[in-house]
Amino acid sequence: MEIITYNIWDLPLWFVRNRKSRLLEIGRLLADHGAEVICLQESWSLDHRKALSEYLRDNGYHDAVQQAGIKRNNGGLLTFSKFPIKSVRFIPFGRWVLSASEVIGNKGVLETVIETPKGLLRVLNIHLHHQSSKFIKTKKIRLRQLRKLFRTLKHESDMPIILAGDFNEHAMMEHQSFATLFEKAGFVHHNNGTELLPTYRIGNYFVNNWLNRVPQSQRYDYILTRDIEKIDLHFYSYGPWYIEPPLSDHDPVILTLS
Asked: Rounded to the nearest 5 degrees, what angle is found at the Cα of 3, between the Cα atoms of 212 and 204?
């Protein structure tokens, strides 16, 4: 069983290049790969979203957003599953900072409960606050967003969880505040002590321009799990998928479970 998370960089801004052609190619690539669960971030164009969803539905996927009847802003999140979808909801984070892009973005979590052959699995597709300013401590905002999510989950059924998305935090599990928060909430990051490879690379020409440029490659995208052994799932492999040529400023990440 494979889970893919992928920030597809479909922002409605002038500097975001080749949006339509990239999205068509991303749809083909994902369909050909055939992962059981796909979590996408930054899907903002309703027309592009519709085209991508129709293509993946034609290739055997259930569309959480389409099934839930979400037609407008749900934080730019899309989740697809080859397993039947039992329920869907969008959990907004709220607005904790005066940032126009974050207010318009309405970031949050797209929760999708899917029916696997072994039982129900909760998939949380997430996009945390962007590192938008040197003058605002945005790490605290991202921690606050995660705490809100975990408070929401605390009073709900003890269901196995996949938590995947763009966390906008480089080397996240090396920061004690994040590591402790995830540990208390019961989440596991399956890095197994190996090198944490980047997903926002200076060698990617969508990154290496005047607006997106970073001094060094970063790791922003992650997949974590909780209680997946309850439905007989176990870690197999985990890491970025380096597509050449790149189709977004981020690289997708794949978690494979046996």
From this structure: 20
Class of domain 2-257: alpha beta
Secondary structure letter of residue 218 according to DSSP: B
Residue tagged 């870690």 (tokens): 235
Helix H, strand E, coil C: the string for 175-196 is CHHHHHHHHHHCCEECCCCCCC
37-43 and 2-10 strand pairing: parallel
Alpha helices per DSSP H over the chain: 19-33, 46-58, 64-68, 100-105, 138-154, 176-185
Angle (CA) 145-119-232 rounded to 5° is 90
Q: 112-116, 134-138, 226-230 — which is least confidently predicted?
A: 134-138
Q: pLDDT digits over 36-49, tens only?
A: 999 999 998 888 99
Q: What is the pLDDT of residues 187-218, one digit of tens each?
A: 999 987 677 899 999 999 899 876 778 889 99
Instruction: Label the pairing between strands 253-257 and 2-10.
Output: antiparallel
Q: What is the pTM of this model?
A: 0.94
